[in-house]
């Protein structure tokens, strides 16, 4: 997923992320009972989120042993964090007052990393807890990485 020379997302990984993100948004909208037309994706913001993730990967790799790299959970943490922070999803006016609108983008980020990196289902109460943590509490890319490392170790 990461280019060892540039320490950034490989072009193929970026393409896969865009395609899977569209699927993740659809899944998040369905999970919270929103119509698929309730949100639109900003390709500009999506690209900026991936660019910022690349900066995070470089920083993480510069602080860690080059031979050991960074864990899949940490990679997932960077992507989920950046995709939750950039204004990628834009909602139609009639969707803005619905109860869980503030969780949709976070849920989409979780569904994305769940499908492309973690290969674990995140649902139910756990989904709500992690989304709430990302949306309303202090979370950064490294703490999200710790959460995902724990989920991966739990299922192993």
Secondary structure: elements and pairs:
Blueprint: H1 11-31, E1 39-41, H2 43-63, H3 72-85, E2 89-91, H4 104-118, H5 124-136, H6 141-155
Antiparallel strand pairs: 1-2
Helix pairs in contact: 1-4, 2-3, 3-4, 3-6, 4-5
What does the radius of gyration come to? 15 Å
Low-confidence runs of at least 5 consecutive residues: none
Class computed from helices, strands and strand pairing: mainly alpha
Q: Report the end-to-end length measured between terminal Cα atoms.
A: 21 Å
> How do the strands line up in the largest sheet?
1-2
Helix content: 55-70%
Q: Give the ordered list of helices and strands.
A: HEHHEHHH
Total helix count? 6
Work out the number of β strands: 2
In this structure, how is the largest beta sheet organized?
Answer: 2 strands, antiparallel
Strand fraction: under 5%
The average pLDDT score comes to: 92
- Bulk shape: globular
